[in-house]
Predict the 3D structure of the following.
Amino acid sequence: MHIIEAGNVAAAMGVKLAGVQVVAAYPITPQTPLTEKLSELVDSREMDAQYIPVESEHSALSVCIAASSAGSRAFTATSANGLLYMNEQLHWAAGARLPIVMCVVNRGIGAPWTVWNDHQDAMSQRDTGWIQLYCCDHQQIIDTVIQAFAIAETVRAPVMVCYDGYILSHTYMPFDIPDQADVEKFLPAFTPDWALNPQCPANLNTVTLPEPRADVRGNTAPGYMEIRHNLHTDLRRTIDVTADTDTKFKDIFGRGGQPFIESYFCDDAEHVVVCMGSLSYQMRDVIDELRKEGVSVGVYGLRLYRPFPDRAVAEALDGRKNVLVFEKALSYGYEGPLFSDIKAALYGTDSLPKIRNFILGLGGREIRTRALYQAVKTACNENQSKPHEPDFIGLKL
Amino acid sequence: MATKKTTILNLPEEEYVHPGNRACAGCGLSIVYKTGLKALGRDSILVVPPSCLTVLQGLYPIAATQLPCLNVTFASTAAAATGVLAAMRAQKRPDVQVAAWAGDGGTSDIGLQALSGACERGEDFIFICYDNEAYMNTGVQRSGTTPQHVLTTTTPFTGKHQRKKDVPAIIAAHGIDYVATASAAYPLDFYDKVVKAKSIPGPKYIHVHTPCPAGWGFSPRYTVKIGRMAVETGLFDLYEREKGQFRLTGASEKMLGKKRKPVAEYFITQNRFKGMDEEKIQSLQAEVDEKWAGYEKIAQGVC
Ligand SMILES: Cc1ncc(C[n+]2csc(CCOP(=O)(O)OP(=O)(O)O)c2C)c(N)n1
Ligand code: SF4
């Protein structure tokens, strides 16, 4: 069924279709309408789930951690400082290997307060062991929420579905609501390998020693370091799982086919722009314009940010003259985090394109298509590398 | 109201704690843990934040407890209990008893927000706070419920200046149907309170005083004696607040109209009170006397 609705509603519809059993959330702009939509669906019994209106984000994720540990499919959502307030629980959810899904409606972080969009919130949580997927439009939001549960439950790791605050969360766009029966074919009911259960007691997340240790039956149980190593290798495996999930999704729903990076006019491009979220769609106008002028340029929209699909990225960037990374986040005192990741992915390959980093749109600073056009065009012509010095676009000092 | 009291003769024999655990010798928590799990019964799920109880329960992959237990972060206990309950409702398993079990620091300080939220929402769980009156797991630092003048590693010379936070009163102010206090020195009274709590829907809060030989500075063989003295001096009182109705129970109830032991007798038994001088003792004695004058009035129906 096609509807025209806000991005937050698309996310809520995805949560409903995914058969989530426990939802806990705490309001924060611009995530709030998603939470409100879910309360409406639960309260009107359109959705058969437990909705827990908690007193903080820390508690919201705690509820999901416990509900997931007890064998239920769990969901929460937040933005900015709410996400940071969950930090301890983010590590806990990943360390406990719980397939929780959370929408992060991206927003800049205080201080000073801002309610507008950038990617600093989710990107600064990239090392918490969560899988991170970024969406470019409403169709991707609803589809990715559904896929996120499939990925999470396959690898037993939590997933963040990230999308731009206001730009996507509050704007209306047409999208297709998948058929419930098809979703059930794609995503069967959650059957955990283990769960809290009085009939089969277990003590979960206990103090664990650095070294492996025998259990009461003499079987070797991993030490803390092995448990961490397993999380890491399973997350690396998630790159393949994401691709398989996308293939399965495409078979049923006909959408997809670019699980890691969405490409726009990149096949033959000498110069490529890389960005995340809605910015990659805005950039398409720039590409159209420059192509008309004969500049050989395309744009990649990165969908999977953690685990970083390094091989796919290196392959995509192979043989390009210029790689221009545009991002709405900073690793303060260094450069944009995506820029560092892309350079790392290129290390050890023969391809060493000229590479530049542009920081823009922080705290909702307007991103003018004209400014994007200027930056891309100039950078393509200059054909220069600036390995650590990001250029700020739209800065008014 | 007077239900039949459990005695040592009819206390269930089944043990849910394996012999041998990692608590210190003489730990008051060991007594209440063993007794409390008997009262909760097999069909229960525990939620435990970092504390001495985490250590007591053992190191991965071996556990001292026979009940399923979710170890959670320090601030999240009551929210995690909420999550287990939500999952049980979603899976149509309403008979599972969910019990959160936290130390006084995890309850009165960092976990208070989540506990308050869960009480306000009316979550159907039992929250047991074992009060050893400091952060013992990290090495005896002051907590919100450390009594005034007590020496801890963060109040090392002049003792804690502030008074003990009255957590049961704070929780009672949420208007929940059952708030009780208990003591490791009276495990059967605690047992009966947990059993009663199980029969009441909504949030239930039980605050148990658990003497700690390591942190309080007394010989492990005196745990019960010291726990009793706290009650006999009137410093820690055993009571229940059922649907707002307050009544002293057990040993505290029996003290109504009688002379209490002087608080000074309690203070000399433990190293943590070494910083007390006569003036401080007298002022605390006066506070206890005033509190008990209030109890006497309530018992006589004058409020
Ligand atoms: C967020 C966070 N801060 C601090 C700690 C360190 N910590 C672990 S246990 C503990 C004290 C626990 O005290 P209490 O709740 O009174 O239980 P007890 O150890 O006395 O049994 C602290 C401070 C932690 N685990 N998590
Ligand atoms: S420090 Fe105190 S409360 Fe903790 S285990 Fe030892 S005796 Fe028990």
Q: What stands out?
A: The beta strands of chain B are 44-48, 69-71, 97-103, 126-131, 178-183, 204-209, 239-242, 245-248. Residues 28-299 of chain B form a domain with the Rossmann fold fold (CATH 3.40.50.970).
